[in-house]
Structures are given as C-alpha cells and as structure tokens.
C-alpha cells in the first residue's frame, strides 16, 4: 500500500509498501520526474516496495526520501542495508536516478503549493504521521499509531489529544485500526489502534472521512468489516464517512 498526491508535477508519496511498485508502473509521464517519498518509519511493511519502484532506475529522475532519523546519512544507510547484496541484486549506489535523503523530526515544510507537516507517532521506534494540505484540502496519513483507550494516565491521554489536533478538520484521515476491541487487549503497547479509540479522535478532530488502515494480515474481509462496525458503533456521528482501506482505490479530495 502507498498513498500519493500530485502537487504540480511533484509527486508526493506517503510510504513505500508493496503498492509502490504498481503506483510506479502507473506513472507514464516523460522523465525527468520528481518524487517526494515520505516515509513514516522503516518497518518492513512500509519500505519493501522501494527496490521495485521503477523510477529509481530512470536517469535524471530525482527522488527525495524523507524519514524520521537523526541524520540524512542514517536514512541512506538504511536504504543501503535494505538493498545490500544479500537481499537485492542492485546496490543503492548503482541507481541511475538522483536520490537524496532528508531526515525529519516534527516539522512543517513546503513542496510547491503543498504544506507537509509531521507529528511523532506512538509506535515502536522513531515514527511520524504526515499531514498534507493543498489549498483548503487536506489528508492525514497515520499508518502506524497507537491511540490508547481513554485513560487517566496523562501521557496516554495526551496521545489522543495530539493526534486530534493534528488531524483537525482533515478531509481524509487514513489511520491505523488494526485491532478489534478483543484483540487490542492482548496487544497493548504494540503500536496499533482499535476502533473505539480511533472513533473518539475522529469525532474530536471533526474529519470528513476516515479510512481504517493497517489491516492485520491474519484478518479476512469479514474480520476487517467487524472492526469497521466497532468503529462505527463507537463513533455515533453520521456526518463522518468511513470505510476500511482497500488496495488500488483513488480518492479525490
Ligand atoms: Zn510499524
Ligand atoms: Zn506497519
């Protein structure tokens, strides 16, 4: 899965899972092309499409890879490791395109007319959420983020408040909703969210629509729908649209 937005010839891509390959194959514009690849973190399910992104191998293309790291060099080293000779036949140093690495923390920056903002996620290891605003349209991408259930622990309560502030008024909130209420109980602290906690944040943020994301690979469609039902039951707000995320779907904001 990946998510992309087109900002005046600059393409913003959010994460680089297996969907990145098909997205790359669907882009037929004449090179040179410029891609901004914004990574939430470096867990496998968010980077494994990178070696299969064909635009890496096109001369004069430019790809800027953003990610949460202490230095630009640290991102390069992770990519170098991922494409090391034990894992992949082509070295990161043999790419024909020009690749740059940009370490980000919590910040906002502009890509042409798009405002890109990040927020630290509640997930194992350095992880960020992204918000992209273009004109009066906005999407928030929170693929891996644990919103704890309502809690008296101020630190846990703060997570929900921070995410709601970050997502305030978004047209589309793509958010981790991996667990049912029952499965969450045995996975507290694993860095993923269940429906009721997400519903509270979506209502607080007054987003237009929510895509429930990061389905468990163990869940079939019925289990995913059941998690969505739990989310709707907890939401109690008919003005907010929602559905489980599906591969290959386009949303016009
Ligand atoms: Zn993760
Ligand atoms: Zn993940």
Overview of the structural elements:
The chain is an alpha/beta fold. It has a domain at 1-104: Ribonuclease Z/Hydroxyacylglutathione hydrolase-like (Metallo-beta-lactamase, Chain A, 4-Layer Sandwich). The protein is 25% helix and 26% strand. The chain is built from 6 helices and 12 strands. It has helices at residues 19-26, 72-82, 154-166, 181-185, 195-205, 221-235; strands at residues 3-7, 10-14, 34-38, 62-68, 98-104, 108-111, 114-120, 128-134, 137-142, 172-176, 209-213, 241-244. The strands form 2 sheets. A 7-stranded mixed beta sheet has the order 6-7-8-9-10-11-12, covered by helices on one side. α3 (154-166) crosses α5 and α5 (195-205) packs across α6. The longest helix has 15 residues, at 221-235. The radius of gyration is 18 Å and the shape is globular. The model has no long low-confidence stretch (mean pLDDT 95). Bound molecules: zinc ion (2 copies). Residues 43, 45-46, 143-144, 214 line the site of one zinc ion (ZN).
Main sheet overview: 7 strands, mixed
Strand order of the largest sheet: 6-7-8-9-10-11-12
CATH class of the domain at 1-104: Alpha Beta
Instruction: Note the beta-strand portion.
Output: 25-35%
The appropriate CATH architecture of the domain at 1-104 is 4-Layer Sandwich
Shape: globular
Topology as H/E string?
EEHEEHEEEEEHEHHEHE
Low-confidence stretches are none
Distance N terminus to C terminus? 19 Å
CATH topology of the domain at 1-104: Metallo-beta-lactamase, Chain A
> Average pLDDT, to the nearest integer?
95
* Rounded radius of gyration (Å): 18 Å
Which percent bin holds the helix content? 10-25%
Number of helices: 6
Kindly state the number of beta strands: 12
CATH superfamily of the domain at 1-104: Ribonuclease Z/Hydroxyacylglutathione hydrolase-like
What is the subunit arrangement here?
single chain
